[in-house]
Amino acid sequence: MSTNTAHQMPADTGATYVVPGFGAKESFPIPTDLLIGDNWVAGSGEGRIEVLNPATGAVLTSIADATVADGMAAVDAAQAAAASWAATPPRARAVILQRCFHAMVEHADWLAQLISLENGKALPDARSEVMYAAEFFRWYAEEAVRINGDIGIAPAGGNRIMVQYQPIGISLLITPWNFPAAMATRKIAPALAAGCTCILKPAEETPLTALAVGEILRRAGVPAGTVNIINTSDPASVCSAILRDRRVRKLSFTGSTEVGRILLREASYNIINSSMELGGNAPFLVLDDADLDAAIDGAMIAKMRNAGEACTAANRFYVQEGIYPAFVDRLVEKMGALKLGAGTDAATQCGAMINGAAIDKIEMLVSDAVGKGARVRLGGKTPAGEGFFYPPSVLDEVPLNADLLREEIFGPVAAVVPFKDIEDAVRMANDTEYGLAAYVYTENMKLGLQLAERLEYGMVALNRGLVSDPAAPFGGVKQSGLGREGAHHGLLEFTEAKYIAVNW
Ligand code: NAD
Fold first, then answer.
1. Per-residue pLDDT for 1 more than 50?
2. How far apart are CA 321 and CA 128, in angstroms?
């Protein structure tokens, strides 16, 4: 167990990555080492991790590979900064967060290009992500000065019940590759607003965006040690060691349910407060009376934002018999019109998948569904050539025993199932261990709201294809997670309620 041990800080390699095509005015070189304390350091790992461009398979650059010792050095740095950051006036914290917001907006095109390069998503998706990511800084700058407690009189009279929200302490933030900017800022911004110092562990596939955000934070005046960033090829050992250090008090994870389960076990060792944003399997219900145009527009956003690589992505379309043929025809037409290509190509609307394993999973789920009787109405076949591409695809009449109705496909494949009775649709929609987001299209608002209440999901979009908003509590029920991000709820996840019993 490490307790304030001073770890030797390895030297800075000065290695950086420069996004091609951007000058010094719109961009800056991105340090590719570890951010520990005030320094970008090489770390004690022997090798470096290669970062690939999923559209070509080519290596973009390499980044430092943190070891357990580097993880401990990051905890030391976070500990050294903790007291003074917690004591920094909320307004001063807010000013820094505002600067981060402006810096991200100012660098939006460059950051979008970077996200497209390392993640593969189409530039419009990347640009939306940058703006969404930046908004967390603005929102939490506003929330930083509103961490209000409360005070009441004990029911028996006599004493007062005072409740104050204090920073929870050093936080380990672990993020996935599908929204490399937004998943990081959705955690960093509330942690900083609440007065916590943190260690960010980004996904191996997309570390550069997180490193760019780290440099933005530094330039905006975030004090040394307040945000530390470590990339590693051995997340299990490094994160486990961090979680077993008693100085660490919070784990905030976004990723798969499978890894979330492992991390909850790791967090149980020191009873660490845990927020979990995990996998989804979103149903998209279209009732006979739905506005077809609106339902198709919503379906395109819910399915195709990020080429389907979103935890909130519509995975299963349940469409009522009366509107079913028209809905499927229109969906096939719209999905078929999307241009597949490298995310950085301005004409691209559907970018590359993250890696070969993602393509393998999609192929497996599609072939299972087709083998069980689903009809391929569009796509359904991996194109030849370089890069990790899968075309927009529509599978129709998907049988209820198909694996893709149970598993996240995480790709541009829409699985459509007809239904007659609304009760059957609700039952099918709820028949999953996941409970992140669900979508309903109907012109009958009374019925829509009743369905929204009955769907076992943390978020329900009614006549909308998008739920994400920094001002709204984002999160799931069942095996989709614990806790909420965004809104005031997201700030409270980084605080402890301190109850003070007072006589006066
Ligand atoms: P993943 O679970 O494989 O990895 C997520 C992160 O966990 C990465 O940083 C990875 O390095 C790290 N990790 C992996 N094993 C670890 C271990 N043993 N200990 C510590 N860290 C470990 O997920 P992914 O493939 O990067 O992302 C896709 C998944 O994320 C999907 O299931 C998606 O639904 C989910 N997701 C959820 C939300 C949400 O808000 N609920 C948002 C985005 C993505």
1. no
2. 35
Residue reference for tokens 């087709």: 370
CA 134: distance to chain centroid?
Answer: 14
Q: Residue 7: its pLDDT value, please?
A: 55
Q: Please give the full DSSP string across 219-249, using - where no structure is assigned.
A: HHTPPTTTEEE---S-HHHHHHHHHTSTTEE
Residue 500: beta bridge partners?
162
Reported as a single tens digit per residue, the pLDDT across 384-403 is: 999 999 999 999 999 999 99
The answer to whether residue 106 is catalytic is no
Distance CA 258, CA 116 (A): 27
Query: 379 CB less than 6 Å from ligand 1?
Result: no
2: pLDDT strictly greater than 60: no
Compute, in angstroms, the gap from residue 175 CA to the centroid of ligand 1.
6
Give the whole-angstrom CA distance, residue 75 versus residue 171: 9
Q: Choose the catalytic residue: 311, 408, 485, 493.
A: 311
CB atoms within 10 A of CB 7: 17
Q: Which residues contact 302 (CB under 8 A, 6 or more apart)?
A: 282, 284, 312, 313, 314, 439, 461, 465, 466
Helix (H) or strand (E) holding 499: strand 495-502
Burial of 386 (0-12, 13-18, 19+ CB in 10 A): exposed
Question: Could you give all domains of the chain from N- to C-terminal order, each with its CATH number?
Answer: 16-278+481-500 (3.40.605.10), 282-469 (3.40.309.10)
Entry pTM: 0.97
The pair of structure tokens assigned to 366 is 């599609």
Q: Is 355 in the pocket of ligand 1 (CB under 6 A)?
A: no
Q: How far is CA 347 from CA 117, 119, 122, 123, 385, in A?
A: 15, 17, 9, 9, 19
- Compute the distance between CA of residue 266 and CA of residue 270 in angstroms, rounded to an integer: 8
**Cα angle, residue 356 at apex, residues 35 and 260 outer, rounded to 5°:** 55
- 485 burial class (0-12, 13-18, 19+ CB within 10 angstroms)? buried
Ligand 1 atom with least separation from CA of 186: 40
Q: Are 495 and 146 in contact (CB under 8 A)?
A: no
Residue 220: what are its φ and ψ, rounded to 5°?
-80, -10
